[in-house]
Amino acid sequence: MLLFICLSTVLQAQSEDKLGxxxxxxxxxLSNSLDGLPGSHHELNGFDSALxxxxxxxxxxxxxxxAYTGTNLGAPQHPYFIxxxxxxxxxxxxxSVFAEGMIGTGGANKTWAPNGAQGQTASFASMLGGGxxxxxxxxxxxxVEGGYQYSYFVLIGNLNVPYRVPGLPRNFGRVSTGxxxxx
Length: 183
Hints:
This protein has one domain (about 30-180): Porin, CATH 2.40.160. Helices cover about 10% and strands about 55% of the residues. It has one helix at about 1-15, and strands spanning about 20-30, 45-50, 60-70, 75, 80-90, 95-105, 120, 120-135, 140-150, 155, 160-165, 170-180.
């Protein structure tokens, strides 16, 4: 009986994954441009990178940085988002499914608005989503993730007073895919 108890402890210790940190990088797509008024919606392409710390009961603290580029209505679009929050994971056989919630800030170039208007360069941002990690090796996995992102960029008036044009997007969809390095 003592032998079985000792053997089960050794087997459990070998099956636990001791790799705690995760670094992620990959392609990302934002569903709309900052000045995507109705009838003029254009996706923005970019990248997404993240650092997730050691888990505590399957909950990790995650820092996320994403940046995009594109053009809409003749105006260049260069938004970026810096977010932090939690990522909760579940293991299903070899795969890992996760849900995440993050808040932070967004930034953009002043010339993102159409017709030469000035746009706000900073905004609150939040992200709710989830994804799937499929292991490729012990240290690398392929990730697909997506979710709902909120940000509130507005235009700047003559007296540096922000004003909102009806129809400017606040709600975005975000999809990302790439590699995760576990260490």
